[in-house]
Inverse folding.
């Protein structure tokens, strides 16, 4: 079972970027944790980060053999219908995660174009949002409890 | 370390209540899973369900020795400032969970009075929302990764 | 066939409470009329009033053997998602009634959290709203004209 | 005592028009039921249907000797100030009825220009909405319970 | 110079209709005053009242030889784009009048679909709104002071 | 196969009415083009214009043997629920057309009560909107490309 | 009978100020016309212009012996509750006039804080708005037709 | 003369609850101050705190022999129509008080369902809001200055 | 300790101005009561009324040696950012008072530009609002209970 | 005469992507139809698809020698001011097309940043929207009927 | 070439007023800098500060021989239509400046009644906003680059 | 000291693009002026234009050694949270500039996602907006007056 992890704009700066909001764990470390958890869960896992909406859309379109997506859309979540349409087009189940608690921040971050078509949303736990999200996605795909 | 679990109105019907939305796992089963996970994580865990806003407020006020809350406010999350105020008054960290993906339902369910003061929010994974939420809460309380 | 009648907060004061708005008929008198009409229509009918949202939710949950509800939610109709969720959870057909014409009053009374999941809504006819509502509910349950 | 029944646009198609929403009873059948109930209640009753707002306004203006109106404004209820003004000008009490439960449909149907000046509103009971409405109107005109 | 006067729905009831709002002067009397003022000002004046939007539109379209319109759209002013389009299509200058002070009434009466394409608007002076409006229209057409 | 063409209020003035917005082609010319195109496509085609909402509703109700409608509702598109209800009641597929680009005009023209229940909408191409709309409707009815 | 005329900010520039909007007649000329019409109608008339809200409020408070006000509040009409309160405090009937057609201009000009407490409003007729307004005010004060 | 004091949810925590917002004075101390002031003013005074909306409604209904209420609705002020209806039903004059300055906090706290039916509102003075409110209520009941 | 009292526009008319709303006590009487209470509390107190926003701003700027302000901004409270900025610039604590209960009046009176930067707000108690406000201000300045 | 066709994000998936909404015709097939129609109409036609907003902007900027654009902006239509600005900068006439009927879908799809500056808009006809749009564009460019 | 500088309410307190927001440079210093820059640029420059809207309007009206205005409206920018109308009446080009970054402050400061009729707006640079604004105004007046 | 200049989408067309709005100066010319001014001010200055949001984000992320940014986000300013997040992540001070006066254009241009986190904003002065912005940025960085 293959899972594609997607990181939106500026997440390559995780760890150094506004650490009081986003935490001090870097993206490489997050990807490592996810790969380790993936191994434990028996998954093949690929990770892709881009600051370009179009590249994220391309990546989603290419991932037709994945079983699902784990996606942190970052700022694009609030502005990109193209990302939503790509996820709808491919049709795989996906989990949306955010490191920060987006409902506790500026009002334009309170809603995303992805949340209502996701399996579920996890926000506010820093790097842990990703590992929790991966567990949730795999449990859904296997119809097993977490 | 003690964690108080709170279930809002109508969650006593979980399993039979609109199962296409809320899943088929009952509340007793959820509480059992949480207790098992609690043991595994070295926690003492109490669970309380009520259809009465006031009883939930009372329970929060009594829980001064808890380290944190895991709360599914159900319908009260969208209407109760009293619940918010009780959580603010006691001041413990808490995680808000929802079985259904509330941003994919009626617009009056898209926001809660608790989300912006929670550590984080987890929604959409049925009974798994609880176990994910407990993991997230404990990780935060111990400053460890999930 | 059993029908559960539910009266929301402050309806115990009907008759003395703002009579120019709510009429001069008291709740006991209304319940009597409903029981008489119930007998005429061959129904068993129970009536429950509470000023507590939670007790109304509990009562709805207990009424699993009823065929339907006749409910005047009073002020809770405009604020209680928990009541809505309880009615959705039990899933019986119900009719919502109001003594006053709520669309002719303050704007916060113009909509309820129950109306869109009710069979129908009757408002503005004082105590008659109840008897009309009971006739409508029974006609629906028996698939007969009123 | 004379009561004027008014049917707005497209109600001549009742029975065949979107029967899952409006029911399978035709307008002739409804008018017959109303006349029978009228006889039982000792009323003279006239019925008028039109797809033309102006003709409905004309009919209301001509009905100066009626004691009240039973009106299903259909789509005009959401758009016609002229209908409201005609009812205000003549000043007779009236009951507004709808076959479908308008608060459970598109948001532009949730409010009407007539509801706040009506005695009361009945919605959602198909053809029964009319007979319930006639009972309510006559009870009001005679200051008797239904 | 010919001026077409247009009266919208329910204005045939002026004088008897809600006299505390609209005053006690009837439409015939208003038309007489306008004809007298018209004679004084050297105008030919026609008056047309209808409860039918379509007839008012027809009348405006037929009035190609008029120099301008004096129009009290009544309730249609708040709901009819067709009336606006007819006035735009014919392109004559017009004055909008209202007997009542529409900005002191229900909020849905505060704006009309005609006001922003009129020469000007006069509201609140009962039957005098018409005579003031006619003076204003003629002054404009002759580029003279009132 | 029969197609009913419907023209709303003021479209009888096409060609002379605000030609910079609506173009210089008159309604007779448009109907001629449509008839010619209809012949070419093997259709029987009737055309009906009215300034009266009620007459348009009547016409739609009478057209039960038509395969579909081509409708330019003009100003009524923004204000008439009755027209929407008539189209829903008859249930034939229809195409909505506008000569002007309504989203480039006053904000109250940006949406219509018909668009979301139409097959599709074509706006902004003057008289060509009609011929394009007829092609689109027939292609749909025959499940063929345009 | 004394009438106080009030001119708000920038009206001292009438005639030269944006003449395509406000016309080419100056304030002195308007005051002269009003005085002449006042004499004809048997009135004593005073006129006061100020760019200062406070001075207009002072003037209204001093005018306790006036029978009514003719007021063009200009820009203050859209922003001054103090002006409204002064007119309410003194309690004399008044007519609000505007040279330009305010509902055809920027949206912040569409409503005033005075309109709903005025006898009526006249807008769009340049200097004629004043003379029409004076006629309307006097007719009201004398309960005579204009 | 009897006055009923009502304290809403979480006010039992006053003094320890968010002291930078609500102050450091506890509820017992406030009740003592009110009783002392009550004695000074010749009042009998009862105090009731509850976290349950329904108990507050019950208490209001029982207080028919009180001359008035002093109420701090806390979080329920922003959400409870039932509390409003209870106060309207009993009809005694009441003063609404808040320890914190609610218009300086989250926007959902800016308005209450009670303020517009209260004699007046006092907010922002910590425990002093109560004593000021009691003075204001008694002055009103005795038609004397404070 | 010096306190500056500020009265906004039209408050010089208190007592005669709309007495059912504002009460029958005049401004001189209010100032006298405040001076008496001031003496009792050991204060030096100055009072200033103006109908001019600029003069109120000037007065606030001159009051650098005052310990705080007691301000009834009247209509300017709803419209003046300049007043807010003056109070922020000088930085003294102040209490906002209103004779009428502004949240029970027109919606444009429900909020002020001052409330959120005040210590607290007192509204609805007529002349008593001032004396209550002075007590509250002094208690705050001296960190003593009222 | 050269026409540039532009396809926005995810349109490369047409045919397989949500076929109940977008139809079963693929992009290659659409481009072929357009080229065939182009040949018939004597056009040179280029087609460009991208998931990248920036590449679409680049393409528009490069197309200075085109006579016009046929553009399906897909999801970018609802979010991209840059696309609007590019079309305004180049200034060629263009037609906006959508396969689905966007006004019958989620509310965030009801308006686009392009519609009001387009010649016209065609929506809802699947692949036919393109061919109809090309006919409309060419008719406009040649000032001929379709 | 003469330029009139206008400073709105409370700007006389610049330097001491909320220095973290407005900076530590006083108004005299700003006027000196502007005069020095004016000399350098060959300008005659007058400066006027007032806390009175009316005096600012008067000053604008008197400045008919100025080539343009440099205006910091301060709080009046958000509330004064009279100021807008004065600038429109005189018709000189003007630049609006703010010391603070108004879009980073309370939402009621985000827009001004002047911005859309100004040449341009400069905000956020403390005292430098003025000197930058003067350079921009003069460059525009002389059609030269800054 | 290094300053990075960023130009958003379509700014490569400056000079030819809608010159009545954006002016006739091209981007090369602007960059030249900025470099000359940079030399005069002792700066090293790099300039980057892209139509791709992702490339602008990449460029901001790479500029860790710059002292600040001068950015004209063009259309992306109204739609890109990713740009905001990149600027927040890098944390350098920046100035936002616009050639046109964005508050005088379409309402969707009135606010940007960057303005409230910028030092300040300059709009409306064509190419001069850039040179003014550079002066403002450098003055801030050096804590000197412009």
């Amino acid at each position: 079972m293959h899972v594609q992890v997607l990181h939106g704009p500026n997440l390559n700066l995780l760890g150094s970027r506004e650490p009081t909001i986003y935490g001090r764990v870097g993206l490489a470390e997050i990807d490592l944790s996810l790969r380790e958890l993936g191994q434990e869960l028996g998954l093949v896992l690929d990770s892709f980060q881009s600051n370009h909406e179009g590249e994220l859309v391309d990546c989603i379109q290419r991932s037709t053999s994945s079983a699902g997506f784990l996606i942190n859309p970052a700022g694009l979540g609030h502005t990109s219908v193209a990302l939503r349409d790509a996820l709808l087009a491919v049709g795989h189940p996906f989990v949306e995660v955010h490191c920060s608690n987006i409902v506790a921040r500026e009002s334009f971050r309170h809603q995303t174009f992805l949340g209502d078509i996701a399996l579920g949303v996890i926000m506010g736990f820093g790097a842990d949002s990703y590992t929790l999200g991966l567990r949730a996605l795999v449990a859904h795909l296997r119809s097993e409890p977490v």
In short: The mean pLDDT of chain E is 96. The radius of gyration of chain E is 14 Å. The CA atoms of residues 33 and 131 of chain E lie 7 Å apart. The longest helix of chain E spans residues 27-41.
